[in-house]
């Protein structure tokens, strides 16, 4: 009896789950399910070997969700609700303190403010994620948002997309060309009549790196959307692009899931709850 109580006590005190913890979380379902259709995150083995689940927090609010790959120092995907607004484009970049450790602040903040407060943590910061320096002096590549600021409603929500955990090195031509056209025009057309649209946008790691091997250059970028028209009507669509071509290919959600399973070398990938139609 005594032994059992001890074991129970041990489990309680060692359990890594801390209710009310922000930012880097143990599960999206428990902390920020609102960014996923039916509260269901993508499933079946999209996790990299050192994953971090981030409920992206800015000005004391969760804004969207990102699965981050700490080895490649790029996101696997960002998931958000499409809600475009016209506020001015922000340009202040932030980092994610809790990628160092859950004892650090819950909110994203500028590298400068973070290092001012924790000046001994520069190396730990660089180890945990990509920083501004990694994206300087690139040739043919720039900062590609997964959750683009243009799909967010207001100034604060837009600001929350300017974090190094939400971007990948993306071909400048693609970022400003076909990808931008999809983000601005195709999304607007496709979402006509949608009451709520959930988006998941991701990057497939490639064989090349920038910043002396620190940050992976993805081979593909992809984007999928699930649109809720009303309780009984939904539709989906998807695209994929090679990161060295200025072309996006339209696919059904099912085709994208199958394609990604091959690219990630997995048996099965589901990007949205099964209630979202695949064709
Ligand atoms: C920028 O890139 C060029 C060519 O890749 C290299 O020669 C140069 O040293 C780099 N400059 C800095 C400041 O890293
Ligand atoms: C539209 O979505 C909102 C939540 O964003 C919900 O409250 C409302 O009931 C929905 N309307 C319809 C017609 O489904």
UniProtKB/TrEMBL annotation:
GO terms for molecular function: hydrolase activity; metal ion binding; nucleic acid binding. Residues 1-20 form the signal peptide. It holds the Pfam family Endonuclease_NS. Residues 61-271 form the ENPP1-3/EXOG-like endonuclease/phosphodiesterase domain. Residues 60-275 form the DNA/RNA non-specific endonuclease/pyrophosphatase/phosphodiesterase domain. Keywords: Signal. This is Endonuclease domain-containing 1 protein-like. It comes from Pogona vitticeps (central bearded dragon). The gene is LOC110088978.
